[in-house]
Structures are given as structure tokens and as C-alpha cells.
Amino acid sequence: MPDQDATVRLSFKEMCARFDVTPRTLRYYEYIELLSPEREGRSRFYGPREVARMTLILRGRRFGFSLEDIRQWLLIYEREGTEAQMRRWLELADRQLAELDTQAQQLQETIEALQSLREETARSLS
Questions:
Q1: Sign of the four-CA dihedral 108, 109, 110, 115
Q2: Exposed, middle or buried: residue 63 (CB in 10 Å: 0-12, 13-18, 19+)?
Q3: Cβ-based neighbour number of residue 8 at 10 Å
Q4: Opening angle at CA 52, ends 51 and 54, nearest 5
Q5: What is the per-residue pLDDT across 17-39, written as a single tens digit (0 to 9) for each?
Q6: Which of 76, 115, 80 is nearest to 92 (CA)?
Q7: In the chain, alpha helices (H)
Q8: Bridge-based pairing state of the strands 38-40 and 10-11
Q9: pTM for the full model?
């Protein structure tokens, strides 16, 4: 059974709907060269490459990577291939995991402080 995405060709509107992004977001990703749709007159069409890139962009954003990190990471694939891209991905992932761990610790401290203050306030009302 052939891969359905191999023949994908989405319009601008379809791309926005498929990935649940605003037209402004999609245009911005094009402006900063994360995406390069085919153009026919004023219309834009997104093939399998752009669909795959958009999937990676949104996954990267979900993990907290900057758009510049994502752009550089995608460029590595084009310039140096898959292995170099995977090695860079490991570096980015390690850095982001450390950052998320720090944020999680800070969030836990904030939760504990808020719980403590809430309990103290509740006791003062008793």
C-alpha cells in the first residue's frame, strides 16, 4: 500500500487546517525560511517535504525549541545529511532537557510555596 503522504499537495488553507495554525503563523514560517511552498501565481501548495517539515517544526515548538534552533537543525539535514542532523538533535535535546528540568524544579518550588501559604491562611481563618 503506497504512502498517502507521498502524493500530498495541500493548499494554504488546507495546510493551516491540517496543522491547526493561523495563516499568519504559516506565512511567518515561510518568511523565516522554515517552509518553501510551491507557488502557482498567488497560490501556494505544500508537498510531502513541507508537510514533514511542518510536523518537525511543531514538534520542536512543543518541546520548547526556538524557531532559530529548528531552522538551523533543518538546514543541517539539507547540507550534511541525516547523521549530522541526528547528532545535532541529540545536542539540542540534551540542552532542552536540562532547561526543562530546571523549569520543573522552579515550578515545584513555587507550588510548594503556594501550598504552604494557602495552608497558613486557611489555619488563620479557623
A1: positive
A2: middle
A3: 18
A4: 65
A5: 999 999 999 999 999 999 999 99
A6: 76
A7: 12-19, 23-31, 48-62, 67-80, 82-125
A8: unpaired
A9: 0.78
